[in-house]
Specification:
The protein has 34 residues and is mainly α. It has one domain (2-33). It is built from two helices and no strands. 0% of the residues are buried.
Length: 34
Amino acid sequence: IKESIEFANKAAAISVTKFGAQGGMPTLKEVDEF
């Protein structure tokens, strides 16, 4: 569960830096590099 929470937090942090719902979804590569 800890890894899932960390992944979700990273994805959320990236998504709020982009505009739009679909365009704001980070890729797996972006989350891994975060």
